[in-house]
Design a protein that fits this description.
The strands form 2 sheets. This protein has an 8-stranded parallel beta sheet. The chain has a two-stranded antiparallel sheet with strand order 1-2. Helices cover 38% and strands 15% of the residues. It is α/β, with parallel strands linked by helices. It has a single domain (2-215, 257-262), classed as Dihydropteroate synthase-like (TIM Barrel, Alpha-Beta Barrel).
């Protein structure tokens, strides 16, 4: 299984770890820490040393209630860092839903567009389809970041998530986009309750019937904090590392092939253990 991107064909026969690089002042987990060129590049280089296969840079927080960032401000945050990241020789993903950011990022050579709106914003679908090779990550989100947790989804969310992602894939295929360019993200925390998030994880393998690789984005999410709170532990995002790694491994067990994480070193170690067990199990290829 290959994920076709601008410069790389990424083999997903083994799981890949995508390191998160937020160049924002207000990210829910690490806002403000990496919003200078030096700190951003130091962080990127450390994630690569820790084993990240892909770097994902974003200039607008998508935490619940986050304010919208202007096109000009997002470009100011992202593009200078992107220019340097593209020199590192690894796949670079840009976390954006704005076609204006996508266009400049792709002109510079960005490998992947990671869009929480699944290319539903003005001009995004046509722009992505017009590019000959870039990788695309399509995520399900209920409503928008400002309102998604005020009025989350109701009931069993998997059928709606599945139908939405299928429709977005078909929209790309209708425009001639190769399915090999596409990976899907069920959107943990984006307009879902805690119970719905864990239901999506429990039943994640059902999404594989869509025929596309899956990305899991559980890192430091508030649902994990709510679960561990009962043990008297802090629910600050940076205290959710063990819970995040556990969720990542559970996602692997249910078919995820890309893990989008803050804590690269710990996740890479867990993936290696998971892979060793799978390699040692003669029945693993049947799971």
């Amino acid at each position: 299984m290959l994920w076709q991107t601008t410069r790389f064909s990424i083999a997903l026969s083994t799981p890949k770890v995508m390191g998160i690089l937020n160049v924002t002042p207000d990210s829910f987990s690490d806002g403000g820490i990496h919003n200078s060129m030096k700190s951003a590049m130091d962080r990127a280089e450390q994630m690569l040393k820790d084993g990240a296969h892909i770097l994902d840079v974003g200039g607008e927080s998508s935490r619940p209630g986050a304010p919208v960032v202007s096109l000009e401000e997002e470009l100011f945050r992202v593009i200078p860092v992107l220019r340097e990241l593209l020199k590192l020789g690894v796949p670079i993903s840009v976390d954006t839903y704005k076609s204006g950011v996508m266009q400049i990022a792709l002109e510079l050579g960005a490998d992947i567009v990671n869009d929480i709106w699944a290319l539903r914003q003005n001009g995004a679908l046509a722009l992505a389809a017009s590019h000959p090779r870039c990788g695309l990550c399509l995520m399900h989100m209920h409503r928008d970041p400002q309102t998604m947790q005020v009025q989350p989804m109701q009931g069993d969310v998997l059928p709606e998530v599945s139908a939405f992602l299928k429709a977005r894939c078909l929209a790309l295929i209708d425009l001639g986009v190769s399915p090999q360019r596409v990976i899907l993200d069920p959107g943990i925390g984006f307009g879902k309750t805690m119970d719905q998030n864990f239901s999506l994880l429990a039943r994640q393998s059902e999404l594989l019937t869509l025929g596309y690789p899956l990305l899991a984005g559980w890192s430091r999410k508030s649902s994990l904090g709510r679960v561990i709170e009962g043990e008297g532990l802090s629910t600050e995002p940076f205290e959710r590392v063990a819970a995040s790694v556990t969720a990542a491994v559970l996602a692997l067990e249910r078919g995820a092939r890309v893990l989008r994480v803050h804590d690269v070193k710990e996740t890479v170690q867990a993936v290696k253990v998971w892979q060793a067990v799978k390699n040692a199990d003669p029945m693993a290829s049947m799971i």
